[in-house]
Design goal:
183 residues, 5-stranded parallel sheet, 6 helices, alpha/beta, methyltransferase activity, single chain, tRNA_m1G_MTases_N, Alpha/beta knot, 5 strands, globular
Amino acid sequence: MPYREMQLWSNLVTNPGMMGVFKIPEVKEVQYDIPVNVIFILTKGCCDIWNTKVLRSAMGAHFKLNIQKLGWEEMKEQLSGSNWFIADNNTITSSRSSTSIVDLVENISLSSYHSLKYSGSDEISLIIGGETEGISEEAFSLVASLGGLRINIPLGNDIESLNSSTALAVIIFEMKRQIKGVN
């Protein structure tokens, strides 16, 4: 395809000179290395997971993951046997500090991510909130109703929180280290 024609189809200032067209994959059962469901809370107005920039940054992971759009009740049904965790930076922002969410948060135990035992778990479901909006009241309510835990990564030097993907990487690494016995 001529470069100028390819430029018409690309949203990049300088396209890389190659292009692919793919159908969004059907949801299918995938066998993963560790039994962890990662639940990202994507709120209205956040980036589309099929956005071209997101696809490029994920480097093909979209086509190896079981990505689904589910409501909280559907999630509860599908993942009923899970041990539930919320990655929580242990702060409540003023924009969401209603009495009900404060009560929910205070009634869910908080532990450091590395102090828990993940090995022996048949299935783990981990909820990660967005960096701007954080964890929703519905997520806290679900985890509270299922006896789940809030987990955090202890930080120093007055750092309040990590980027969501960085926090996820740290927590998933610890889960895999324990489950697979990797040191």
